[in-house]
Amino acid sequence: MDVPPRAEVPGHPPTVRAAGGSPAVPLVVCDIDLQVGGSWRYVSRDGAGTELGWHGVYREIVPGERLVSTKVFEGFPDAEATNTLTLTEQDGVTTLAVTVLHRSEEFRDGHLSSGMEPGMQEVLDRLEDLLDRAVSPSTS
Fold first, then answer.
1. Domains of the chain: which residue ranges?
2. Would the pLDDT of 137 be above 70?
3. Residue/partner pairs of 78-86 with CB below 8 Å, 24 or more apart
4. Could you confirm whether domain 13-135 is CATH 3.30.530.20?
5. Minimum mean pLDDT among 25-29, 45-49, 111-115, 136-140: which range?
């Protein structure tokens, strides 16, 4: 992501809903209790009415630097993973990195073969656009 220095990833539901959903598959549930030990849950619904849900618990929060949480895809509840999101600044650019630690190679391989990468890239692109607009509002 190419966002200004010290950008903070928003944690309030309207922003997450805007970045995480899409016109074809919107988030219909976006619950966030952004504190250590707090939980989160997202549910998306496609055009056919199929719902997919994810939930987790925040383990570590360092504003503007690091967010660690568990993540469970409700279709595979035994495959809990730990996500670590980090923000680092260098030469005036903030870089967002997400590391996912799975309990087993089987769960990791299942996640990678699920087809999630294009959707994740769309989410990151929308988040970058939202952050750009938040720190550089238009002067219309």
1. 13-135
2. no
3. 79/103, 79/107, 79/110, 79/111, 80/56, 81/107, 81/111, 83/56, 85/9
4. yes
5. 136-140
Residue among 46, 42, 49 nearest 25 (CA): 46
Higher pLDDT, 108 or 45: 45
Confidence band of 57 (pLDDT split at 50, 70, 90): very high
Per DSSP (E only), the strands in 25-75 are 27-32, 39-45, 51-62, 66-73
Fill in the DSSP letter of residue 104. Answer: S
Tokens 């988030």, residue?
A: 27
Q: In whole angstroms, how far apart are CA 90 and each of 3, 93, 96?
A: 11, 5, 11
Start-end of H helices in the chain: 13-20, 105-112, 116-135
Neighbours of 96 (CB within 10 A): 17
Which positions ≥6 away from 24 have C-beta within 8 Å? 46, 47
* Stated pTM of the model: 0.79
Q: Does residue 81 sit in helix, strand or coil?
A: strand
